[in-house]
Amino acid sequence: MIDExxxxxxxxxxxxxxxxxxxxxxxIAKKLNISHNGKNPLFLVILNGSFIFASDLLKKISIDxxxxxxxxxxxxxxxxxxxxxxxxxxxxxxxxxxxxxxxDIIDTGRTMKNLLEILHDHNPHAITIVTLLFKKEALIENIxxxxxxxxxxxxxxxxxxxxxxxFGRNMENIYVLKED
Length: 180
Ligand code: IMP
Ligand code: MG
Known about the structure:
By secondary structure, the chain is of the alpha/beta class.
């Protein structure tokens, strides 16, 4: 395994391996298959960052479910701008549905807070938050994810869907920015 990669002008080190990710993704899927059995949940995949996580997770979901995609953005470079732009909105009705949000990472929690406000306006029955990564120390908003893949340090991560200035999403491991 290559444990150091360069993306644009920065060097990153392996932080979570593809095997570790797959094991955890399978564990979360098993829990969701139990907690949402019979509820016909609607999985809401937050693009772009969650596309690989969502793909791996949903392949292990065996209960009846709907899947939809929405796109939000709050990052530029390696720090959060705090400004959230909804790029692609919701098309279907969420009324009375059990929503399961699939997110790649919760950092300050601003994106999730903003998203929850938008979703609550659509009167869903319940909202469950699944995030692969949780930067607990960086959290500003009062957000409690229901399922967390890994609690991570407040450092910039890339790979497995996460990008650094649009690059690095395709890598199977998750990498952390190397400090000089
Ligand atoms: P928040 O609004 O500060 O919680 O940021 C959430 C969004 O910022 C995530 O959905 C990611 O798209 C992005 N993000 C946060 N931390 C990182 C990181 O370490 N690497 C890449 N993207 C990140
Ligand atoms: Mg994201």
